[in-house]
Design brief:
The chain has twelve helices and no strands. The protein has 322 residues and is mainly alpha-helical.
């Protein structure tokens, strides 16, 4: 077969390759119009769905809790009692207001309620204990002794409100310590993303509300104070005073130094978040280590007698059968 016999085949192959190239070019050019890329649309749908779920959860949380306002007026009875006996002088030093704010009660109404209840509680408790002793117990004792017993019991009513506030402060501080490292992580992410400190506080307060309402409340209140207080340092100091937690005070000190000297917050927040996480872990280990001594007395009182009864009873039954 001569060389010329291959020429028509080469021409046909060239024509086939040219047609294939033209077809490929047409497919490449028309592909975005025929088969549209839906990745952007799908990402937009995912984002809208995530935002819808977030709004739904926030609406559920807002519906489940009552609106808190600092402008709530005290009850007229409490206000009349405070005005009648001039109890407002007891709150002039600011110690009662500080403790109430640490317990989560702010404004004029909680102070009035606390002062009025602290005055009314001994009287109510005295009357209730006196009626209970006379009508229910009916002891054969002189009336003066019964009145003295009721007066001794009523003295507890004066300290009951303070004990309640102290317990509220302890529980609130424990809740803040438990979630404060996560709040610092969110604050660190917000600051390193380029947000200002006010925007970062507002963002963290909105996002951490489902996990820790106490931290969310404090951060949003700090955001409001940063907006209207002339001295921003005072807003940070108020945050440390309202919580009374050492980890929060350390962050407040760093924020004040950053405001004063313009130092970066990223590294400091990262270190303090790790320190607070270590403190939380050490506290958990301390509580776990204190369990055996605490369980010793209940086991001796409740477990060992039952164990002895189970061991000794069969032997006692056998001895009684002989």
């Amino acid at each position: 077969m001569s060389f010329g016999a291959y020429i028509p085949d080469l021409e046909q192959l060239s024509a086939l390759m040219a047609g294939l190239s033209a077809f490929s070019a047409v497919v490449v050019v028309s592909w975005p119009y025929v088969f549209r890329d839906t990745l952007a649309e799908r990402m937009k749908k995912v984002e809208s769905e995530r935002e819808r779920i977030r709004q739904r959860e926030r609406a559920r949380l807002d519906a489940g809790k009552s609106k808190v306002s600092l402008r709530v007026e005290p009850k007229r009875l409490y206000q009349a009692i405070v005005d009648r006996f001039n109890l407002a002088k007891q709150a002039e030093d600011g110690e009662i207001i500080r403790k109430l704010s640490m317990a989560g009660y702010r404004g004029h109404a909680p102070v009035t309620t606390f002062l009025a209840v602290r005055l009314m509680a001994p009287i109510v408790l005295f009357v209730a204990s006196l009626l209970y002793i006379l009508l229910i117990i009916q002891p054969e004792a002189p009336l003066l002794l019964i009145v003295a017993m009721a007066a001794a019991i009523s003295s507890l009513g004066y300290f009951a409100p303070a004990i309640y506030i102290r317990n509220r402060i302890t529980k609130r501080q424990q809740a803040i310590r438990r979630s404060w490292p996560e709040a610092l992580d969110l604050l660190l992410i917000s600051v390193e993303a380029g947000m200002g400190i006010e925007s970062a506080f507002r963002k963290v307060g909105e996002e951490i509300g489902a996990q820790s309402p106490e931290i969310a409340e404090e951060m949003l209140l700090t955001t409001a104070e940063l907006s209207y207080l002339q001295d921003r340092r005072q807003a940070f100091e108020n945050l440390g005073q309202r919580t009374g937690v050492e980890g929060v005070r350390a962050v407040v000190t760093s924020l004040i130094q950053a405001e004063k000297y313009g130092t970066p917050l990223g590294q400091a927040l990262r270190v303090m978040a790790q320190e607070n996480r270590d403190m939380r872990m050490s506290e958990a280990e301390k509580r776990a280590a204190s369990l055996p001594p605490k369980l010793t007395v209940p086991m001796i009182l409740f477990f060992l007698p039952v164990l002895f009864a189970v061991i000794v009873t069969p032997a006692a039954i056998q001895m009684m059968s002989f």
